[in-house]
Amino acid sequence: PPRQAKSGLEAAARSLQASVARDHYLSELRALSVKGMIEALSGDIEAARATLSRIKTTGIKGLSRTYERNAHTLAGIISGAEGNLERAVEELEAAVALLSLDIPYLDDIPYSIGVVADRHSEILYLAAQAHERVGRRETALDRYHRLIGLTGGRLNHPDLTL
């Protein structure tokens, strides 16, 4: 993979290793999600599918919805990287449907809440882009409006541009 992808994969691997060592499930999930995304976008679909499988089998009771949402997001990214745009839209919309509406974005425990809520902006952004690619501009616009309407979750990714 290109140098940036290799560097990103190394960072994700270190993060994953530290998360597993600390037994911190949400950090592990986040590291797996980033790792799979980098693998898919750098063209290593087989590795991305293996990471997706790990996410699906690692789910923790009480966080199953979070794991499922991350699995659908990664499956959407993989489908998009393979050129299967309709499947990408389906997977990303499944992730959108699992977004929590009651996350207190600006909470006393920003780390815990942030790990769960910060994906909202990414998922909505990816879904909007996927809809644009298949020509569904109205749905894309709706996803962008939802993205703009986020409070604290959007602050984790200020570099997302519309």
Descriptive labels:
disordered C terminus; 0% strand; mainly alpha; 9 helices; 162 residues
Structural class: mainly alpha
Characterize the main sheet. none
Number of helices: 9
Order of helices and strands: HHHHHHHHH
Distance between the termini: 28 Å
Using the CA coordinates, give the radius of gyration.
15 Å
Q: Which residues form runs of ≥5 with pLDDT under 50?
A: 104-115, 157-162
What is the beta-strand fraction?
A: under 5%
* Proportion of residues in helical segments: over 70%
- Integer average pLDDT: 81
| Count of strand segments | 0
Shape: globular
Assembly state of the chains shown: single chain
Could you write a compact summary of the structure shown?
With 162 residues, this protein is mainly alpha-helical. It has helices spanning 3-22, 25-41, 45-58, 64-82, 85-97, 110-117, 119-133, 137-148, 152-155. The protein is globular, with a radius of gyration of 15 Å.
Model description:
This protein is mainly alpha-helical. Helix content is 75%, strand content 0%. It has nine helices and no strands. It has helices spanning 3-22, 25-41, 45-58, 64-82, 85-97, 110-117, 119-133, 137-148, 152-155. Helix 2 runs parallel beside helix 4 (64-82) and helix 3 runs antiparallel to helix 4 (64-82). The longest helix has 20 residues, at 3-22. The model is unreliable at 104-115 and 157-162 (pLDDT under 50).
Note the topology.
Blueprint: H1 3-22, H2 25-41, H3 45-58, H4 64-82, H5 85-97, H6 110-117, H7 119-133, H8 137-148, H9 152-155
